[in-house]
């Protein structure tokens, strides 16, 4: 599909195909890991779960079936409408908020905050600190903050120029996907992330595309910022969603690392 200027429409305006593009994830396993972090590291009962940049909310149904009350926050109206419809179809009570993750505010705090698949949309050091302050404000003492693939453990200069490509399909559609990350402002640690999706579906074949600018956040600066803020306790970071595989100086082939913080009193 193309807009009036002849350019591909945004991937974020087509939640069904965006969700299919990332359907390679093992959602039940990821929810099991989330539950394990709660059992091992939470210092309070966890009931309310907030997914920042929730998109099509792929974890929502599984989490809700594990008795966690789901809330999703996203800036995209199309993604939120899709998630609301999904919740309604599944008979799930869920809350959704159309806000920026940088400076969001909730009426009531939650017990767990989660960002999936590198969807950490901060573009400067100021936005990073604003975001962490917003999370601290939204999270009850003893609650947890899990970041999936957000900390940059390898230099941005190691991004592959050709990016990563993959295909997914279901009964009604097939998608060819490519993500390319390109650093363009080294002093500010900025990189562009471009997502292209070619869709072949009953309604025809068309291209979708979107891009975002993100600030690379490196491990030691992250730890220093967390320490200076005094609002979070660093619990640990692990490779590929495996709590039995902590990241160390000898870790190789880092893929989908997760980082866990706990809100202090």
Description:
The protein has helices at 15-21, 27-41, 60-65, 77-89, 125-138, 219-229; strands spanning 48-52, 69-74, 95-98, 110-115, 139-148, 164-169, 173-185, 190-201, 204-215, 232-238, 258-263. Strand 2, helix 4 and strand 3 form a beta-alpha-beta unit. The protein has a 7-stranded mixed beta sheet with strand order 3-2-1-4-5-11-10, sandwiched between helices. A 4-stranded antiparallel beta sheet has the order 6-7-8-9, covered by helices on one side. It folds into 2 domains: 11-153 and 217-263, Rossmann fold (3-Layer(aba) Sandwich); 156-214, S-adenosyl-L-methionine-dependent methyltransferases, CATH 2.20.130. The chain is α/β, with parallel strands linked by helices. It contains 6 helices and 11 strands. Helices cover 25% and strands 33% of the residues.
User: Helix fraction?
Assistant: 10-25%
Uncertain residue segments: none
The general outline is globular
Q: CATH architecture of the largest domain, please?
A: 3-Layer(aba) Sandwich
Approximately how much beta-strand content do the residues carry? Answer: 25-35%
CATH superfamily of the largest domain: Vaccinia Virus protein VP39
Q: Output the structural class.
A: alpha/beta
Order of strands in the sheet with the most strands? 3-2-1-4-5-11-10
Q: Using the coordinates shown, work out and report the CATH topology of the largest domain.
A: Rossmann fold
CATH class category name of the largest domain: Alpha Beta
The radius of gyration over CA amounts to 18 Å
Q: How many beta strands in the DSSP annotation?
A: 11
Total domain modules:
2
Q: Give average pLDDT, whole number.
A: 95
Order of helices and strands: HHEHEHEEHEEEEEHEE
Measure the end-to-end span.
49 Å
């Amino acid at each position: 599909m193309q807009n009036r200027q002849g350019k591909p429409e945004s991937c974020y305006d087509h939640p069904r195909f965006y969700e299919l593009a990332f359907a390679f994830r093992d959602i039940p396993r990821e929810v099991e890991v989330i539950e394990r972090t709660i059992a091992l590291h939470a210092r309070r009962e966890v009931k309310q779960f907030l997914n920042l940049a929730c998109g099509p909310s792929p974890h929502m149904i599984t989490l809700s079936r594990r008795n966690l009350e789901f809330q999703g926050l996203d800036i995209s109206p199309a993604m939120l409408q899709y998630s609301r419809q999904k919740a309604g179809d599944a008979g799930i009570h869920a809350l959704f908020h159309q806000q920026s993750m940088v400076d969001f505010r909730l009426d009531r705090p939650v017990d767990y905050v989660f960002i999936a698949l590198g969807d950490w949309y901060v573009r400067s050091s100021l936005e990073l600190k604003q975001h962490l302050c917003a999370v601290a404000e939204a999270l009850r003492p003893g609650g947890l903050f899990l970041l999936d693939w957000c900390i940059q453990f390898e230099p941005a200069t190691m991004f592959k120029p050709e990016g990563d490509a993959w295909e997914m399909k279901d009964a009604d559609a097939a998608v060819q996907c490519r993500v390319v990350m390109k650093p363009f402002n080294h002093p500010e640690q900025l990189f562009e992330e471009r997502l292209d999706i070619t869709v072949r579906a009953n309604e025809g074949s068309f291209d979708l595309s979107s891009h975002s600018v993100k600030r690379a956040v490196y491990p030691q600066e992250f730890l220093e910022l967390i320490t200076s803020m005094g609002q979070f306790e660093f619990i640990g970071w692990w490779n590929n969603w495996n709590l039995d595989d902590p990241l160390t100086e000898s870790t190789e082939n880092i893929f989908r690392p997760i980082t866990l913080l706990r809100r202090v009193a």
